[in-house]
Each structure stands twice: as C-alpha cells, then as structure tokens.
Amino acid sequence: MSGDQGPADRAGQAGAAGRRARGELESAVLAALWSATGPLTSAQVNERIAGDLAYTTVLTILSRLYDKGILTRERSGRGYAYAPVQDEAAHTAEQMRSLLEGGHDRAAVLSRFVSELSSSDEQLLLRLLSEHPAP
User: Which of 4, 6, 65, 101 could form a disulfide linkage to 71, CB 3.0–4.6 angstroms apart?
Assistant: First the structure.
C-alpha cells in the first residue's frame, strides 16, 4: 500500500495486512448483535468481535448501520446501546429479494440460484413453497 493512502481508503480493502472490508465489518457487527439477548453498547460489540478492532471503528460501523435503518439505538449512559431492527433471517431474506429485484432477468437469476442449491436445500425450498399459500 502506498503511504499516501488514508485510513478511509484502507478500510474498504481486505488487504494482506489483515484488514477487513467494510461489508465484512458490518457483518461481524450484525452477527454480534444478533447473538445477543438485548441491545449492546459499542464497547460490548467490540468485545464480541474477533480480532483487534479499534473502538472508534466499531462505533463508526454501528453509526452507519443505524443511519441505514438496520439498527435501532437507545441511550445508555453517555452513549448508545444498539439492536438490530430485524432478525438475521428477515435481514438476509430482504437482501436476497433486493438483489433479485435489481436483476434484469428474474427467471435466469432464480434458475441459477436453484441450480446451485444443495439437494437438502432444494428439498427444503420445495417443502416451503408447497406450504406457502400463493398471494
């Protein structure tokens, strides 16, 4: 990496120095919150994430997720405690639906998705579709 690259430039890369990309950090923060039984402060989230992240990095990720509407927050002392708006399954399903809607050929995307499922996931999907009433 060149010396004129700032922390913001490096934060978006998962380089050889062991840095994680922003998406990976957001996923790690969300995983910590989903595994909790209630809201967590940024210090508590930082304790639950593997690796040696700066407290300010975790605070930045929490603020970004809050700004995106993915987290709620409530006052906790001088700071905030954060909680996910949705559980992990609902969040993932929303992401999948958003990606599907953004594609140009829904049939091709769904066909590729189904073709890459394991046989057990395919059977589960068939069962879920048969149990789900059509709108």
Answer: 65
